[in-house]
Amino acid sequence: MRALVVSDEVDEQLWAGVGPGCEVGLVLAAGDLPFDYLEFLTDSLGGVPCVFVPGNHDPDLSGFTRHGGLFMRAGFPQAWPGPAGAVNADGRVVDVCGLRIAGLGGSVRYNEGPNQWTQAQQARRARRLVRQAARRQRRDGRGVDVLLTHAPPRGVGDREDPAHQGFDCLHRTIEKMRPDWLLHGHIHPYGEQPREHRMGDTRVRNVVGRHLIAFTPHEVRT
C-alpha cells in the first residue's frame, strides 16, 4: 500500500493536479501545511483517507470532541478548524488502511504559539501514547507500523537553534514501540536531500515536501 506523505512545504505540482497516481491509498501529513491543501490532496486522489499531526504553525486543535456529528469544545458546539474528514492522530493510536499509526505533533517550545511543548511536557504525552499502543497490542497482537511526528528525535536530523531542536523522549518512544517508520517534518532541507536515519530497526525520514512510501502492514508484531 502506497501513501503520499507530506509536510511543511506546499508542492506546487500537486496543487496543479499532478498527482502520484491512483495507486495511492492514503495521505499522511506531518504538520505545518494549509488544511485546505490537505483537503485538496485527498479529494484529488479520490477521497482517500488522510491522517495528520499538527505542527507548530498550525492552529490549536486540542480539546475538541465529536457528538452526533457536531464538534464540541468546552461543552459548546464549535467549528473544528482542522481539515475536513481527516484524522488527527496527535496523542492517539489509529488504524487506517491496514496501518497502525501513532501520532505526536508539535515542536519544542520556543515562544507562546500553539502546538509547542517543553521536553518534559512532550515526554508525558509520549508516555501516554506508549501506554495506549501497548494496550492495543495486548488486545490484538498488533504493534505500531508508523510513528508520525512533527519534530524529529533530538540529535537525529534536527538543528541546534531553539525552534528546531528535536525531542529527547522520541528515543525512548521508538525503543518501546519499535515502529517500522518514524516520519517527521519541521526541518526544512532548503534544496538538499536529507539522509534517512536508522534507530534500531526503525527508519527515520524527514518528509518535508512530498514523498511516496510503500508500507507493508504487520498483522502481528511481537
From TrEMBL:
Coiled-coil segments: none
InterPro entries: Calcineurin-like_PHP, Metallo-depent_PP-like
Pfam families in the cross-refs: Metallophos (PF00149)
SUPFAM superfamilies assigned to the protein according to its UniProt record, in alphabetical order: Metallo-dependent phosphatases
Domain Calcineurin-like phosphoesterase: 33-190
Membrane-traversing stretches: none
Protein origin, superkingdom: Bacteria
UniProt name for this protein: Metallophosphoesterase
Top-level taxonomy: Bacteria, Bacillati, Actinomycetota, Actinomycetes, Pseudonocardiales
